[in-house]
UniProtKB/TrEMBL annotation:
<feature type="transmembrane region" description="Helical">
    <location>
        <begin position="6"/>
        <end position="27"/>
    </location>
</feature>
<protein>
    <recommendedName>
        <fullName>histidine kinase</fullName>
        <ecNumber>2.7.13.3</ecNumber>
    </recommendedName>
</protein>
<dbReference type="InterPro" id="IPR000014">
    <property type="entry name" value="PAS"/>
</dbReference>
<dbReference type="InterPro" id="IPR000700">
    <property type="entry name" value="PAS-assoc_C"/>
</dbReference>
<dbReference type="Pfam" id="PF13188">
    <property type="entry name" value="PAS_8"/>
</dbReference>
<dbReference type="GO" id="GO:0000155">
    <property type="term" value="F:phosphorelay sensor kinase activity"/>
</dbReference>
<dbReference type="InterPro" id="IPR035965">
    <property type="entry name" value="PAS-like_dom_sf"/>
</dbReference>
<dbReference type="InterPro" id="IPR052162">
    <property type="entry name" value="Sensor_kinase/Photoreceptor"/>
</dbReference>
<dbReference type="Pfam" id="PF02518">
    <property type="entry name" value="HATPase_c"/>
</dbReference>
<dbReference type="InterPro" id="IPR013655">
    <property type="entry name" value="PAS_fold_3"/>
</dbReference>
<keyword id="KW-1133">Transmembrane helix</keyword>
<feature type="domain" description="PAC">
    <location>
        <begin position="236"/>
        <end position="288"/>
    </location>
</feature>
<dbReference type="InterPro" id="IPR036097">
    <property type="entry name" value="HisK_dim/P_sf"/>
</dbReference>
<feature type="domain" description="Histidine kinase">
    <location>
        <begin position="423"/>
        <end position="619"/>
    </location>
</feature>
<feature type="domain" description="PAC">
    <location>
        <begin position="110"/>
        <end position="160"/>
    </location>
</feature>
<dbReference type="InterPro" id="IPR003594">
    <property type="entry name" value="HATPase_dom"/>
</dbReference>
<keyword id="KW-0418">Kinase</keyword>
Amino acid sequence: MDINNFISLIGLLFIIACAFFGILFLYQSFRPREMKKTIQYYATLLEYSPFPAVIFRVSDLKIIALNTRAADLFRILKEKAISKPILDFFVCPDDLHDIMSYLNHHEKLVDYETRLLARGGRFFWAYLSANPISILEEKAVICGFTDINHQKELEQTLQKNKELYRSIIRTSPDNITMVDMLGKIFMVSPAAVRMFGYNDKDRSPYGMPILDHIHPADRARFKHDVRQLKAGTNTGVHEYRAVRKDGSELYIESHSEIINDNQGRPDSILYVIRDITQRKETEKAIRENEERFVTIFQEVPDPVLIFRQDGTILDMNRQCEEWFDVGKICSLGHKVQNLGFFSTDANNEDQFLKILSLQPGEKYETCIRLADGQERYAILSTRYITIQGDIAILLLINDIDSLTRAYKALTKANHQIGLLNSITRHDILNKVMVITGYSEILLEEYPDAEWRTTMQTIFSSGKDIQHLIDFTREYQDLGVHEPVWQRIDEILQKDVLKSLTGGVSLTIPIEKVEIYADPLFEKVLYNLIENSIRHGEGVTRIALSYEISGDVCRFVYCDDGVGVAESEKGLIFQKGHGKNTGLGLFLIREILSFTGISITENGVPGQGVRFEMLVPFGCWRYRDSCFMRRSTPPAPDR
């Protein structure tokens, strides 16, 4: 073949290829337009459907058409629903899988019950019917929906009501008995069987007159109450004596109601009966103990006042009469507010309103102004009690006047002593500064060695006095303030301790534990760390941790220094023992002892110190869990 024929053949093949791809392009362009036209045709037909309907492709399960009713059912715009996966509208994806599996083997699916999901998270029950269809040889499914949510809710409500009725009869602790209009039992609850004294082996009370279980002495009254009930007069709850199968007696409280049939005619009587034998025995015990209560009430050494919630006085003891200088006879029936027993406290708060707001066990410390103008400090606490069926408030007034005044006087004296100590300390330091200042001048002016030794001794003694005075200033508040709950990790964040631990690896406890200790507990940590750095000879690591076992908590302090010699372990906490003032570890023990915390050193010499602080029960707690080993810490041992 020559070159010209070859070129002609290549050209012919090129023209054929162009024609093929041109035809393919025209077909592909025509198919989407035809598909879109067909889908629009189906969408138009769906709009005429009387129920919500959706069409989705089988290949990707995406919606290609839906009507307005379906869009409203799913609470979504039609435009936004197109191309969304149909799976997005099923609460349970397995339902769609079951539907597609069924359609693979059957021509159609009718009334498949499923739960669907609408926009906004609302789900509802529906019957789903589906048919496979073909759109231009592409498989699709058309689904119709019937909203049965209301029907489903009614069915569930009815079922719940039936179950509730059965549960009430089965689990009610009260005797539920139904009798016909002649008084014969035809339905009893399990509690009724037990109350009447029957068991599985006995003949049940069915068919027996309910009157047989009423005590003979009360049967006439029972019959009278039944006649009134049948006449349309329901007199409420009645109390009777009843008898069990074995003849033993009990007290019952009965509420009865006429049950009508479908035509409104009286059909049966429902009795709800409660065993009140224990209540009757309790009432008897209360009556027997009333005299004892009155005796105790009058002999309580503190004033006690009983009044209703509106302030009406019901009773008071002799101490209350003496306190407020009133007579019990003249006060009963009057309002507490009108008699001027309480006014306003130091915080301008109405004392009576504060009393009404107290919770059981809550205490309110205040100062009460009496009729003669005197003021007495007291702690008020309340309890709710029942008197003749009415709720009343029992107010206990704990007289702490002498104790409070003594405490205030002691506080004032401590303040004055502290002020005197501060002034005296300031004056002493001024004199010591004169001594140390002149000593330094003399040391510089006189070169004689013997003279310099003497002056150096004077200078050092002056510095020691200055250190001791500074030390007393730091610890002048030891034991003055009440202990508080404190956390080790929070204390170690303070600047004074951060600067002290620079260059040392510090490990802090991970447990969020609080310790109840004197406010000077910070000084304990400071002195321990300073002691390690000053005397540990190259300490590089300090570790603080808790060892908790049951109610026992140990706070442990360790370092990697030289430790404490065995001969020194029993002496380091004694006053004056040490290389400096000899007060550091002594005062650590004193600060801890205010809340009963003991400290010992049991480290290995040469491997570092190990101080163990045993925190007593009630003086430690977990902070975040709100679990407290004891609600109120023990009083400090002063």
